[in-house]
Amino acid sequence: MRVLHFFKTYWPDTFGGVERTIHAIAKGTAGHGIQSDVLSLSRAPEQNSREFDGHLAYKAKLDFEFASTGFSREVFGKFRALIEEADIVHYHFPWPLMDVVHLTSRPKRPAIVTYHSDIVKQQVLLQLYKPVMHRFLSSVDKIVATSPNYVATSDVLQRYKAKITVIPLGLDERDYPRASDDRKERWRERFPKPFFLFVGVLRYYKGVHTLLEAARQTTLDIALIGEGPMELSLTAYAKEHHLENVHFLGALSDADKSALLELSTGFVFPSHLRSEAFGLSLVEAAMFGKPMISCEIGTGTSYINLDGITGLVVPPQDSEALAAAMTKIAGSASACARYGANARRRYVENLKAAKMVDLYHQQYEQLVK
Known about the structure:
Layout: E1 2-6, H1 17-29, E2 35-42, H2 45-48, E3 50-52, E4 55-61, E5 64-66, E6 69-71, H3 74-83, E7 88-93, H4 96-105, E8 111-115, H5 123-139, E9 142-145, H6 148-153, H7 155-158, E10 164-166, H8 181-190, E11 195-199, H9 208-215, E12 221-225, H10 231-240, E13 246-250, H11 254-263, E14 266-269, H12 280-287, E15 292-295, H13 301-304, E16 311-314, H14 319-330, H15 333-350, H16 353-368
Parallel strand pairs: 1-2, 1-7, 2-4, 7-8, 8-9, 9-10, 11-12, 11-14, 12-13, 14-15, 15-16
Antiparallel strand pairs: 3-4, 5-6
């Protein structure tokens, strides 16, 4: 069986949450005898079309971007050529150009779409795009949502409940080698006191501004791994308010991230908008057995982090509640241990890549029957 994955970006151009999911599915389903190809856009398609971890990453020329959407004339022909070799096309939503490619190419292949997120930010343009979106979603054979929480709170998904299957995203522990004792010791010297960890791109929906407001209400150290478009304004806020307990660490190696995940008291993830549809960083925290703090936004974050079981869930943009949650976890060794053990169990039972891969394999088999 051969599957063509289709999304706007992929390795080596970018490797965010959706791209990591595509990689995990392609890599994992190879063990079931499934060959995968990935088609995406790139400013340097000749340079970036290459083999990756057992599958081929094909690129079409990116002509321009508008409203977070990549456009390409070349991708129509590339898609038609690759679909001739495929048994199934696996779309990753949202990407409006993808819908147009599908509707104009009319591939005579079963189609499955992983619905990663509603369109949240571009509300004006969404009104123009809606007719195309619904034609696309109506035409595919299966829609996969990443959590039951998102199905329940998405107006779009409610319209297609009859064709929806829920497959939570998962990570492979083998992709996270444990840090050496020397590396951990170096970080332990830098953070000798209890500290909370944040990992993520510093985007508008991550709620880091609320985390900084919470930092003003606690003496607990907070370490942030990641870069992004909000970095300058966030660091300026921390400097203006003399937040000596806030530490912007920038981009770090996987080994350093593993070390800090191991050493941290807990993991804080204050995303406050539905643009945070799942939260793979929370899966990482659960994998390392860490108590989690997140916000109730009706998405997969509250599927991963169960309030009072794996950690605490607080209202979005509530700095007082966020500070109180960190203080509560740091102040109770028994609660910290209980939440951490439950988080690890949550990962093992629900959030392993192998489980996600097996469920996608079942969907593929049903499609080609």
